[in-house]
């Protein structure tokens, strides 16, 4: 009996050990249950597999315990408590499995676009350090090795239609350039600023020279050079200009370097492009001037041709054609927001060219120096003057129309009475813009309008020369290509660089925002 009792005790110890191992296995199953269901492609299959495993453990457990009890009919209180504990754990896990099954049944099916391991993604998002979105402060960083790409995309190979027209900020190209310079200044990198500005100015010089016959390209770069000059001045950080900025705009000022030398280079570039456009306009207008304004009879019913003088071929040119050409350049400059002050200087320069060209032809042609031609010339000039006034370009007394003073007074001279000394005194007072040589030449060339009118007497000419002596260095001919001083007055403008964005068509993705 003692041997059987000892054998029963050993078997109970073995069952107890087995119960403890099963409890550990159940705890392990409980811990990995959620992870197994989440990781598998088929949660239902995983649930069935785990449930089957739990059922096998339970059957095996109860079978061994039943065999032991039936064989020895000995069940200590500890054994009963242990078996009840294991059974409770089994039931608890089976209930947990049922709850998880209901939860999965209530979830929507997984689609093809859902990541295979959502819990891993969740872990990365929650455990990673969140990067705070950097506020755009209106600067672009351009790496040194990308300078050539910047010049190519923004200057030499630029398609102007991408940065002009409705919805595009005027001077966008210049703004992007300045924003790149601002970043180099922000980084306190003097060498980088020099490299960047040198590359940009060289690129502008190259493209404006290459496209010097293209009015659209030349006007576009005039506008952007003026805008770049404006930015380098307004946001230079100098107290003179900084004091005119709002607190928000002061944030865009340069902090470390004085770029006044580069402002001078950009100003020179503006002057060069301006003169290129003036020359182009002069070349366009030159063929129209003589036939359209001196030879053409614009007033209906008035014939200004002398008998025996062959009528000139006007080639269809008239004052309207000249006005149309001026209007073309005006609209071109307005479309890219060229400063109104610069536009007035441009129109004034072209009007001076018209004035000088007409004067030089008038004082060399006797057939044009008579009363009726004076009326025609004055009428043609009035159409130019009317166009200037209607466009609001003549804003002061010494404005644009003063560039037509010589030819205007010459046309008046042809119409004035020139037969007495009293008339000569009026001529001296009226034709004050004409020098003595020009007055003398026109009076000598003047042809009487009819047989009843006499030529200008030597007495009248001598009186005028006495009142207006010929001064040393005075020339008879005018210089049509004379360039008047060009100025770029400072005009403070509201600019928010943080609101500027680059059109995708420019393909400047290599620039980094800061």
Low-confidence stretches: 71-75, 106-133, 307-311
Radius of gyration: 47 Å
Coarse structural class: mainly alpha
N-to-C series of helices and strands: HHHHEHHHHHHHHHHHHHHE
Major sheet description: 2 strands, antiparallel
Cross-sheet strand order for the largest sheet = 1-2
User: Residue share in helices?
Assistant: 55-70%
Strand content: under 5%
Strand tally: 2
Globally, the shape reads rod-shaped
Walk me through the structure.
By secondary structure, this protein is an all-alpha fold. It is 62% helix and 1% strand. The chain is built from 18 helices and two strands.
Give a nutshell description of this structure.
The chain has helices spanning 2-39, 43-72, 77-106, 118-127, 147-156, 172-186, 190-210, 215-234, 239-242, 247-250, 260-295, 319-335, 340-362, 371-390, 405-415, 421-430, 436-445, 458-467, and strands at residues 140-141, 512-513. By secondary structure, it is an all-alpha fold.
